[in-house]
Design goal:
Elements lengths: L34 E4 L1 H5 L9 H14 L3 E5 L5 H12 L8 E7 L2 H10 L5 E9 L2 H8 L3 H24 L3 E9 L6 H14 L8 E6 L7 H13 L7 E6 L7 H10 L4 E4 L13 H10 L11 H12 L20 H17 L32 H12 L8 H15 L5 H13 L5 E13 L2 E12 L3 E9 L2 H8 L9 E12 L2 E11 L5 E8 L2 H24 L1
Parallel strand pairs: 1-2, 1-8, 2-3, 3-4, 4-5, 5-6, 6-7, 7-8
Antiparallel strand pairs: 9-10, 10-11, 12-13, 13-14
Helix pairs in contact: 2-11, 4-6, 6-7, 7-8, 8-9, 12-13, 13-14
């Protein structure tokens, strides 16, 4: 049995303020994009079983640049020669665009700080990011000190960093400062304000030289709304808020990293540190893609370009050697896919609405975003298995192969597809659906097959008449000469087969359209007949000649009607 009594709440709610209503609760959406910082090359990389080599890091770095990320934490250069070498490669080989700022991380320890300054020599734009843990747990277990003790660790490091950076700044380098009170969630909010104020003072922060105060969840230990309360209280009580850029660094231990980030933005954060697809230690860092695309679906430009998300995914999987889950938001193989019949029907109708209405707003049920916006294809939107319905099958036939089945025909063909999926016990791919359609409608030549035919059309005033003559082969044995006239090819054909036990069927409706098959263009005719017991039957014909397509459609319907009657009589 699991025993929950061994655990306790590990966060510190802000002090109770009678009558105070948190402002973030009054907001219903994020209005502007935050400043984005990728930590893929540091936090993401250190979580990999096999860390990236230099070539892989360079590939990911340039991918992040292409996405539009302007601040990129490239590593922990004092941690190893590999990390140091990568940063020197970025700088010496000119990989860093002028509008991109690299970020380096270092613990608040003097020898590591000195090594980090060696690593950034010659870089134009740098964020010098240092940290120490401030939580009650780490003060007790790791540092064996109090708030003043961890504050001194932070301010001593801040003073050293400020002094060492001045000659480089004087020489033209753009160096900004970032401080993280690690395990912010587990720190008393008044203590966090006190420590961060002291750090900003040691760094000589002012409105023109702001310090990034990065507030990590580190290990998530409270609900997102509680974090938002902490954050708003922290910001409201921070001396000299105008001296700070408030940054978030959420992790995903409780599975709520995205919610924590979004509520944190509502609570006043300016900046977010995240990774592509949430890579990071334990359950991962905040997923940059999800937060950005969530904003996009609300009509807010995230100022990041994920229009080629599949290509970004390929790079990610190559360099991390990890696979994206099929249900990963926005990028997973199945996130734009519907199997349920009702969902498929609604999507199909939504796509038809978009095509007919020419709406400039995306209005398709069950698809919060247009797949094309992230470089996804429409073909996989609807996939067919035993749970699928008539709308899904019609969508596949229209969008994959150009067959615009009449609505009245949808139930019939859907039943045929459903029976096939039940028989095989798994998903039916689009190509298999097309083959089933051909076999059921276009290739049904028994019992009747037209072995020759002739059409003649005459016009007089505003009227026209069609004469038809030909030969039917019945059950592959006997031939039947037929002829007739009518006001069109279908009418003429029905009159021609009069008396052949084929005129028992009632003509109900007719639809046609052109279809392109490669460089070829053909006419498609859909024939709706009704047999004497009231059952509706459909046939389909294809031909370069529209009149012949109609005749083939009638024969298809008749042959299918005969087949159905035989089955009922058995």
């Amino acid at each position: 049995m699991m025993d929950a009594t061994k655990y306790q709440i590990g966060y510190y709610p802000p002090p109770v303020e009678p009558g105070h209503v948190y402002e973030w609760m009054q907001k219903d959406h994020i209005e502007t994009a935050p400043a984005w910082c990728s930590v893929d090359l540091r936090d993401g990389n250190q979580a990999l079983v096999d860390p990236m080599n230099v070539e892989e890091k360079l590939l990911l770095f340039h991918t992040l640049v292409d996405i539009g990320v302007k601040e990129i934490e490239v590593g922990f250069p004092s941690a190893s020669e590999t990390e140091f070498h990568f940063l020197r490669t970025l700088i010496k080989d000119g990989h860093i665009p002028d509008d991109v700022t690299i970020q380096v991380l270092v613990q608040a320890r003097p020898h590591l700080i000195r090594r980090t300054f060696e690593a950034i020599e010659g870089c134009k734009h740098v964020i010098f990011h240092f940290y120490n843990s401030t939580s009650t747990l780490q003060r007790k277990v790791v540092f064996h000190t109090d708030v003043e003790g961890v504050q001194k660790i932070a301010t001593d490091a801040a003073t050293m960093i400020y002094e060492m950076s001045q000659p480089m700044i004087a020489a033209g380098a753009d160096i900004r400062y970032e401080y993280s009170p690690e395990s912010f969630m587990g720190t008393e909010m008044d203590a966090a304000d006190q420590i961060c104020d002291a750090v900003m003072t040691a760094l000589h922060a002012d409105e023109n030289h702001k310090v990034i105060l990065n507030l990590p969840t580190t290990v998530e230990n409270c609900m997102p709304n509680q974090f938002a309360d902490e954050l708003e209280y922290f910001i409201r009580n921070l001396p000299g808020r105008e001296r700070a850029i408030i940054s978030l660094h959420p992790h995903n231990d409780r599975g709520t990293g995205v919610a924590t980030a979004e509520m944190g933005l509502l609570a006043g954060a300016d900046r977010i540190e995240a990774t592509l697809f949430g890579n990071g230690e334990r359950t991962g860092n905040l997923d940059m893609v999800t937060v950005a695309m969530n904003m996009y679906t609300q009509g807010i430009d995230p100022e990041l370009d994920f229009s080629h998300l599949n290509e970004i995914r390929k790079v990610y999987e190559k360099v991390t050697k990890m696979q994206i889950g099929e249900r990963q938001p926005y990028v997973g193989e199945l996130v734009f896919t519907a199997f349920s019949g009702s969902h498929q029907d609604a999507i199909n109708k939504g796509m038809q609405y978009m095509e007919k209405s020419h709406s400039d707003k995306w209005e398709v049920p069950y698809l919060p975003i247009d797949p094309a916006d992230v470089g996804r294809d429409y073909e996989p939107i609807i996939r067919i298995n035993s749970q699928s319905g008539k709308g899904g099958t019609a969508f596949i036939m229209a969008h994959n192969f150009g067959f615009e089945l009449p609505k009245a025909m949808h139930p019939e063909f859907s039943d045929i597809v459903q029976a096939e999926t039940d028989r095989i016990g798994h998903e039916l791919k689009p190509e298999a659906i097309l083959e089933l359609f051909k076999r059921e409608y276009l290739q049904i030549n028994d019992p009747y097959r037209l072995i020759n035919r002739n059409f003649q059309e005459t016009h007089q005033d505003d009227t026209s008449a069609v004469s038809f003559s030909g030969t039917l082969c019945c059950e592959g044995k006997r031939t039947i000469p037929i002829s007739g006239q009518g006001n069109g090819p279908i009418d003429a054909f029905f009159n021609a087969v009069h008396g052949q036990d084929l005129d028992r069927y009632t003509f109900v409706d007719y639809k046609e359209h052109a279809i392109n098959t490669g460089s070829d263009s053909q006419a498609v005719a859909y024939i709706h007949l009704r047999i004497p017991d009231g059952t509706d039957v459909f046939g389909v014909g294809m031909d370069h000649n529209i009149s012949m397509a109609s005749i083939k459609g009638v024969l298809s319907a008749i042959n299918r009607a005969k087949k159905l009657e035989a089955k009922k009589g058995a």
